[in-house]
């Protein structure tokens, strides 16, 4: 392994600009003559708009325009779309209501976009927004999805009388029912997967710009996938033809899914730029991020696990109601369906699984993918069930897991997925060792001496990453293919530019992608630049989410590098006067096999461009290759996370004493970066389990709409993490990478709740497990023990 | 409009601003020093932390006019003669950042922690002292290590040995 190649903990190339304040995020960009947008948002969760009177606002200083949904309609600008078609059990397509970028006749959640004020300064735009008179007729709101499905509930969209978008299912119902009939033990749990607000620390932002000279638009925006944004804004929303719209996603300050989606604000800024003849800039305030960024999770689930008398799992039955919010966000429909139920087999050999999911509209912010997207919800169901089953049956939770782990690969689950490889015993064993499981009882006694309750919780998670084989997702309803593209541009001096359709917003692609190139081409890492996030530079790409950039994005780069080497061999053969078949490429050198005749990579690059040694008709000059890589399967990162907590029964305060993560991500390019991804994911999972929860009151007001009210994990809330790895290289892509971005967030919630419930001796501990929740569980456990 | 004058990163600056102008707006919009970020509107996240007369403040809740005559240092002013501040080096060397958005505020706060608490910082102290800075990417694990290492490296006033790259 070289100091900068695959497997090396190379310090990040991108850090220089970030640690010196020279990063360039969207809000750092200012365009000549720019005006400022401020969105007037609905204060009501549900209301019809009778009239909007902007006369007074338009007369205020600095105001350039006040635009509404009527203006969008007049310009024939279409609504926002949901790109994944889900069919209900009865075969009917999902019921998707309209999703205009500015409200047309009705508002459906607090924060919904009513009008945009464009002014010379942001302060003027905000002042004028207060003068826009909106005549609302308030309607009754519904925020709870189960209530929304009941007769007589307020109707969010005309298209669905019971607010149900779909009633979907997966698996074999009859086989599952039969498994439950044979069961000797059934574990039943009612679970709530709490609603989360992503809260990337950089708020969303957009600058729309229009050039009348070329009739072309530019959008600077905080996007994880600028090409998809361009495609949607041109093909569906209809703002401009694709070749007349450039989307630039510069440095982006975290995404976690929330910046995948195409939102109203960037749509409106782009469209408004032409209307007002000025660049239009908008930057979210944090309160707007809370109100109008797509939220995550929000499931209510009844889950049942059937086991035989020895603890072998026979079947799993799951019924989930998923809150989709007031509109279907870009990929909302897929998250509680195809990103959820196919992971319900976990790491286990389960013969029969049946899952039903109702997706439901409510008067709340749209819900879409958030770090893990469906897979944390699935893992929470499976790992809570398995843990509780072990406790109910008096089995060691680690032993029960081992008894049911899949041992032979490939393994076809009853819910679509074909796991290609894994070694679940290895990660469990290593985690038990790193967590010093054998001395847990001793530590528990020591805690008890101090009046504290110590508990341990396991989570054997699995995820489907490397999203995704295009044919497979197409057959499941996806509106896009999920391959990735790359271009390797070798310059005449031998330096290299990599253009990738992946987008880095914290993942360190500028380093890891360069490591791959340095490793494969044998050139110094300093000679490699990674370019991403600009539709004018990169031909096309699907972006970064679903832990896909290594497994899919880097695989595309590897494929293009192979083509560069193949072309280089042709050039070298001419220069070295040898046959192409005799040229070998190794360590940055093209060598005639068995001789000392060789050319360095840079020499071949120069020869390719000057084209003096070969006919440009027989062999094209230049050295630049592109590739599109479409994966053959999902990848299946998996592992074991063990959480050890101490609970103070007097206050209900939970402290995480130890965190042990052992993950199998296949090939690791940069262990420093991979471990950092684990840390961050675990922190978000612990946040979900202990601290975070979005709450609407019964009128649909978001009562957790600031960092004062929504509890973000802070340094003092978290422990240091012990991170270990096991490796089974993924056979489904050329680099053996599985992906690491979401693992922590997927694994962690179940591990935390399993640990707390173990500590307090009571299973009903809802997330977030605040001191109040845990204290109540302690009281119930004490009452039960007193009664016994 | 009112006139405000201050020293920012060693340079004297003066401008006419609206009285409601915040220090962070003055830095970002008037001086185009965009390394100082805004991550929230309730003075919680700490992405906007700068040094005002040697102490860390949240520039999102400081009026520019109250800084008249003051000395302000932002993330852009930390490196001297092309040499990074030891705390900047420590964040890179310990992978204390991912998306980089909270990083300027984290580094400015970290230097202030060393000023107040000294160079030998234990993990508990660092975690408690970072209460006013939120990071969504790193889980703080490597930030804590970076602050500890940076504090040590600041002992000699010498930048850390350059990380192997």
From TrEMBL, chain A:
Q: Does the keyword Cytoplasm apply?
A: no
In Pfam terms, one family for this protein is: Ald_Xan_dh_C
Task: Tell me if Cell membrane is a UniProt keyword of this record.
Answer: no
Q: Which UniProt keywords apply?
A: Molybdenum, Oxidoreductase
Q: Which InterPro entries match?
A: Ald_Oxase/Xan_DH_a/b (IPR000674), Ald_Oxase/Xan_DH_a/b_sf (IPR036856), Ald_Oxase/xanthine_DH-like (IPR016208), AldOxase/xan_DH_MoCoBD1 (IPR008274), AldOxase/xan_DH_MoCoBD2 (IPR046867), AldOxase/xan_DH_Mopterin-bd_sf (IPR037165)
Domain Aldehyde oxidase/xanthine dehydrogenase a/b hammerhead span(s) in chain numbering: 20-140
**What is this protein's name?**
Xanthine dehydrogenase family protein molybdopterin-binding subunit
Q: Which organism is it from?
A: Chelatococcus albus
From TrEMBL, chain B:
PROSITE patterns tied to this protein: 2FE2S_FER_2
Species of origin reads Chelatococcus albus
Q: Does the record carry Cell membrane as a key word?
A: no
Keywords for the protein's UniProt record, in alphabetical order: 2Fe-2S, Iron, Iron-sulfur, Metal-binding, Oxidoreductase
Q: What is this protein called?
A: (2Fe-2S)-binding protein
Q: Which domain of life is it from?
A: Bacteria
Which InterPro entries would you find in this protein's record? 2Fe-2S-bd, 2Fe-2S-bd_dom_sf, 2Fe-2S_ferredoxin-like_sf, 2Fe-2S_ferredoxin-type, Beta-grasp_dom_sf, Diverse_Oxidoreductases
Q: Where is the 2Fe-2S ferredoxin-type domain?
A: 2-78
